[in-house]
Amino acid sequence: MSRIRYEKIRCQDCGYEGDYKIYDSINIDEESKIDRYFKRKIIDSSLFLYTCPRCSSKCYIEYPFLYNDVKNNFMVWCLPDNATETEINNVKRVDMRTYNGTLRVVIGKYDFIDKLNVFENKLDDIAIESIKTFTFSKVDNNEKKYVKTIMFNGVNEESRNLEFVFIRDDESNKMVNVPVEFYGQIKSMLKEKEIKGFEIVDQASYGNFVEND
Predict the structure, then answer these.
(1) What mean pLDDT do residues 71-77 have?
(2) For a tag site, which of 64, 75, 96, 139 has the least CB within 10 Å?
(3) Partners of residue 167 on adjacent β-strands
């Protein structure tokens, strides 16, 4: 069940205090039955948009929330871009021994969308991170300077390719395609460690969850 609370928000333009709806946890199966566009509102950030009741001024408010996908059996704890090490470690210490699904922590919007795309397509995020590393290694050194992050965009069923988006600082994003068969090869090569709780699995950390021969 989703957990919701309200906080008072003071408008930066007119000073009026209004109520802002905060989702501490989101049960996507439950919320989607009420609003079929609910997940889209998370992805496009409109769920986090506050509109002042007095002057109609708008602002986005980032806050941590737990995303629970019942159908696909995964939970993602999404923290804001400015999350501290203490906040990250507090999430990692949450006892989830009775949960049998996949548990992850992400920092920021792009990593959150990335994980949704991976797990909704029934793929392994460690293998996906490995493919990102391989793909990035083939990029021209001058191009690498402008790539902010790499996001998995999904599977193109028609071309049988995995789609990756290179998010650039200048927002001129670039799509890169990788054959689905390559994913199978990478997945079969990796000897992964068991992950028992909430962990960050990204470009910097995925190697920590692979056995080294």
Answers:
(1) 95
(2) 96
(3) 149
